[in-house]
Amino acid sequence: MTIASPSAARPSPLLATLKHARYVISDNPVTGLAFGMALVLVVCALLGPYIVPHDPYASNTAMALKPPSATYWFGTDQLGRDIFSRVIVATRLDLGIAVCSVALVFAAGGIAGIASGFFGGWTDRIIGRISDTIMAFPLFVLAMGIVAALGNTVTNIVIATAIINFPLYVRVARSEAQVRRQAGFVQAARLTGNSEWRILLTQILPNIMPIMMVQMSLTMGYAILNAAGLSFIGLGVRPPTAEWGIMVAEGATYIISGEWWIALFPGLSLMFAVFCFNLLGDGLRDIVDPQRRT
Amino acid sequence: MLKLITSRLLIAIPSLIGVVIVTFLLTRVLPGDTAAYFAGPAATPQAIAEIKTKLGLDKPLIIQFGDYVGALAKGDLGTSLSTGQPVITEITNRLPASAELTLSGLILALVIAIPFGIAAAVKQGSWVDHSCRILTTAGVSLPVFFTGLLLVYLFYFRLGWAPAPLGRLDAFAMAPDTVTGFYLIDTLIAGDVETFRAALAQLVIPALTLAIFALAPIARMTRASMLAVLSSEFVRTARAAGLTPWKVIIVYAFRNAMLPVVTTLGMVFSFLLGANVLVEKVFAWPGIGSYAVEALITSDFAPVQGFVLAMAILYVLLNLMIDIAYGIIDPRARSEA
Amino acid sequence: MHGVIDPATAGTLAPSEEPRGPLLQVRDLTVEFATRNGLVKAVKNVNLTVAKGETLGIVGESGSGKSVTSYTVMRILDRAGRIAEGSIAFSGIDIAHAGEKQMRDLRGREMSMIFQNPRAALNPIRKVGHQIGDVLLHHLQADPRNVKEKVIEILNQVRIARPEERYHAYPFELSGGMCQRIVIALALACRPQLMIADEPTTGLDVTTQKAVMDLVTELTRARGMSTLLITHDLGLAAAYCDTVMVMEKGEVVETAPAEQIFRNPQHPYTRKLMRATPRPGISLRDLLPEEAQTRGRVQASPRPNPPPQAGEGGPVAPVEAVATPDADVAASNPLPLAGEGREGAAAPAAGLSSVAKGSPAPAAEKTLQPLLKVENLVKEYPRQGAPIAFLAGLFGKKPAKEDGIFRAVDGISFEVGKGESVGLVGESGCGKSTTSTIVMRLIDATSGRITFDGEDLSAIPAKSFAHHPMRKRIQMVFQDPTESLNPRYTAARAIADPLLRMGGMSEGPALRAKVEDLAGMVGLPVDLLDRFPHQLSGGQKARVGIARAIALNPDLVILDEPTAALDVSVQAVVLNLLEDLKHKIGMSYLFVSHDLHVVQLLCDRVIVMRQGRVVEEGTAEQVLAAPKDAYTRELIAAIPHPPV
Questions:
Q1: Mind listing the pLDDT tens digit for each residue in B30-50?
Q2: Which chains touch C (3 or more CB pairs under 8 A)?
Q3: Predicted ipTM?
Q4: Can you state the percent helix, strand and coil of chain A, rounding each to 5?
């Protein structure tokens, strides 16, 4: 028995993935751009409060409603606060809400969906009924109702955003699990003595993961929009907290008198973040898809 | 056909039941004190206790639910604390304003998005296609309230083309007699061209805001499903039979491609009804969305609950219509009924 | 003959009516496709001629460019494809340079096409009558007043019963064979001069295939039409074509009259293809190329050859003058590679000699010792929504709902002896796959008894069978090699799975050695073991699946159409590999297939199933040579085969 030839030639899976990521990025510069944008967002979220030029909460009525200048890059608001600093600092809260809600729904919706698709029967019926009921509401309206009922806090915004995304995750995970439940390789795994749970963990889950990751990235954008929309109508985050949605709401009153910068910059940041995650979602699909790996 | 409609109606019933249960649960099974929510922030303990008895919150949950359903059946959604009006009256009065706005936005979106999506798919790789892709990705990334504000700044403040974003009619115009509740239609019925123009001027920018928002998913789906259908084998058969490109695109490809688009409309409606709330706030539009937002700010819960319920019922009905439309296009769905 | 011709285009279109000139002449045709990896030539310097009334068959395996050639003639290539060189003349018209308007007038009226997968070839939401009517109206063969009448007349011609009713049917309401008739009606509606049939019967059952092909032949003959038949099936081409053209990798390797090409194939590739096609009266070894056979004998000598290190398109050892750069076949040494000296080198020789067919003696002896015994097996499904009922609905008109229960398997009994190979044959929906899945213990039967080596298996529920010690004694090779491999497992990991789960082995050099050993047995080069399924060819994936199935030395292996997704040359190699392994390990096979000829090659006994019941059972020779049941006779008669 010899073990001479094999292991030397085998590349590590991590290295292969990295190589593939580099290939995809060089192949598709837009995805590279999206990664760059995401990096900017993450840096702002982590380091925001330490790098901004002004205190985001310090008001200075003498400097109220000043258009963008060398000192105040994005101008100042009605209380004379620096909009640039506020926009940067707000990244943490906006991304935080989105990340938390997406993580929550990824776990809950993913598990429910996979169980639903893999086990079928009553599990499927009950979970299906729950998501149908959620889907029977216009989602943003339901989120409004939930936050209004549970109480006007940031935590409840996270929960509401997770709940309205639940059916989406269930549907994706369920259909993926269902397709694979009778797939040849799953049958083959049954023949080799894997229990149903083991098959779920080793055969089904790793194959569904990539699709769920793409889903996560795409719903990140939606979660950001949703949370910002809720705070725009006065739910969740309250002034004077720096948050993009509420800052746009504050700027809304001034736009008809021509002070455009108060609403514009937080609005653009929102767009930037959502656009970034949407692009990233498309790019991720290419990276995790083993069919395209060469 | 009748069979199709009945079967779809039967499917809609569980959704309606679910909606009623959820709205009930939202008000009753809360971590906080429900009576306090209903009483409003400034209520005294006595007032809260009174409301508790009045709402029957001291009874078992199942009885409460029975009462709730009974009240619903009578069209009783409670009374708004801030205006003192029954919620149902306010919602019915304000619904046409919201409906007019949402439908105008949707129609505008469909009229732009579908031809655009088809053109992008038929001329794949051309500038039409590229602009379609850029527009759809950018479109889904735009917060709808932000688009609204940008348009207001541009068309009202900068260009002065649009009137001030303050409701359905400016202060000097008289609202037409209510027939449908849609100002565009009612003014025409009354033959009042002046007011029609005023109403249209007020409507264009908010409807455009909604349309930009709804356009992206429709155009994206139209393009994708047209591409899929155009590369399908039956289109190849039609081509191999020598049919004209026009006939192939319209009779063979387009009708098939519409099936996923019709399905997507359900999702688009879900987004639109939500976006409607935000747009109504930006444009001070007197619809049910702004009614709910005003109530939220004053912690007036009955209108919010009534609003959520009304929107959900509306949405279930819209989905029902979509299902029926789907059945009309697709014989396979018909035969399953 | 051509009905009304649009006077505006009549001038350009009037086909030259010279009686002897070829209808279609293709000269030096090269077609390029723009792909991610640059320009790819799908068709290279192809020449072909179709005379009036002639039927030309283009035969080739996947990727040979046969379909691209035919699409080019119709000028319906994808956007990415274009004619790089060469000319196409169709009754005097220069197709390569004709305007799109002119091509539209030709398509459907002068040349038409029928496709593989008839159901997908029809618009799913338009009534079939209207689809045929569209073509008639477009080519002015009918006007809106009489179009329905004309369509019904055409439906009658393609033998569709109750045409008035079917005029209003949607494709999903018709069976596959019926849909193909509609597609034929579409193609023949305007009485074109040339019909291109692209794999017209792939995916149809063999009896339906015969009905469809006979219809096409009859109708085209009656009209004096020329036909271009594209197929991967040499037997089909032989049975229905005057001339046969063989293509390989975009090039024509041989063109000759059908009789001649089968009796005396000139090109090595044609010979290889010919040999690989299963047909009556030959043995498994006859399927392999001559070179490989001699090579096999050489290899049976005491010193084993080093395993061929042919990867994807890698160079093949020069000695083996197999005239094919096909990586899969090259790598597929038909004979077991002596992996690490595990097996005595004599084994292949033993395998070879015992392969010689027609030795009923051992078979008779084996039946005395039954390994698997199935008695009165029944599987019922509720009619609606059940997968089997759904399949039945796909292939035929849904049966009336009598009692809401559908019997997929209706009381069948059979035995498989130790070391015996039994074939389970039947058309789609006959219950053969359901039977094998039950025997496999993946689903439970409604009633009946399965005894395996004396133990009652039907008593153990399928759910808990995964942990039963019996599990490792029954294994399976799946139909679709791609689908049966987890896309995230390497070949090595896939083969190791049963060893880890039930073989009592754990990660480490011993496992790796065992996996390499198994790879050697199935002829999978060791350097391919760390690849993922999408990096392997179809034949290589099939080998991985086989290695996984034999990893635990099972007693019974169920082969579920293991070669249905493979090209014939690869099929030949895989079948031989299975035969060798059987003799080496001493397994029994239950071979599930729709193809009697293939089954006959590998199996001692054959069971023919129809509608959930066994209609005939006997030794392979008996069933094929002297079938007793009328259905078996019909089945055998329907298989087309080369005249050799």
A1: 555 666 666 666 677 777 777
A2: A, B
A3: 0.87
A4: 75, 0, 25
